[in-house]
Amino acid sequence: MDITFGGNKVNLEGKEIKVGDVAPSFKAIKRDLSDFNSDDLKGKIVVYSVAPSIDTPVCALQATTFNEEATKLSDDVKIVTVTVDLPFAQERFCSVKGIENADIVSDYKYKEFGKKFGFMIEELQLLARGVVIVDRDGKVAYVEYVPEVTHDVNFDKALEEVKKLK
User: Fold this and answer.
1) Arithmetic mean of pLDDT, 41-57
2) C-alpha 137: how far from chain center
3) Residue 148: DSSP 8-state
4) pLDDT digits (tens, 9 = 90+) for 102-136
5) Active site residue 94
6) Would the pTM count as exceeding 0.85?
7) Distance between terminal CA atoms of the chain?
8) Residue ranges of the Thioredoxin domain (predicted)?
9) Which of 3, 46, 59, 128 is the catalytic position?
């Protein structure tokens, strides 16, 4: 798979995640510096919104759009934005943007999400942009790796896939 960042080809660490794979368990850091454990979401539909940094316009749009869409989805759908931003920056962003319906977690410490899901950009130690949707049984139901990291995810397609799982 070819991924570029600003037009320059980058290499992704880890194995590319595919539809039908069992979603790997991972730890990340919550905004309050406690551990996030993906196993705590078993039995729910989970939308992992993956972005390099919430401090860029495209990433901010991605986080706020999924936050808004979360209010239209059922309670058994969980939106989790994953970046490598420090939890302090994530907390500031959520406070300023009013993010209340989606979780934002940081992969800065363990880097388990990036490596286990194949989103870690080797050269930058940032996450590539994309979406991974995991069904109630823990299987990957949808994956999007955005070919150019500075471009948007396909919100409509991701939300359409979530609605199929309800």
Assistant:
1) 94
2) 19
3) B
4) 899 999 999 999 999 999 999 999 999 999 999 99
5) no
6) yes
7) 30
8) 17-166
9) 59
